[in-house]
Amino acid sequence: MFDHLQRRLYRLSPWLIRALIPVGYKGTYKLFRLGQTEPIYVGRSDTCLRNRLLRHAQTNRADYFDYDVHWTLENCFIAECSAYHTLLGKTDNLIHPAQPHGLNLKCPFCRSTFDQIRQNRFSYS
Ligand SMILES: [Zn+2]
Description:
- The chain is an alpha+beta fold.
- About 35% of the residues lie in helices and about 15% in strands.
- Zinc ion binds near residues 85 and 109.
């Protein structure tokens, strides 16, 4: 089961976003529509989660959100990739999460990364 089913969802309204999330925090988020238990979109902000969610609130794209604050760009990227792959095909996300600017990180959940890791293993035969 997904962890968001046990978590509280917050109404996607500007005053609540401002009350919950300080300026300048990195983080990931999921957007939900009223009456739906699966998120319609997953995303992240490497600079200001609050501003990103405020922009979503202006579009009326979703009714509720859930979020996590992350302290490093790497954790933020991996958390978004995890959600993206877990919910692949079930959300409005059309493209794979982009790497954080200036960092050479690979998504650990992509098949190509898995194959590359497997090929780098020592052979005992
Ligand atoms: Zn991936």
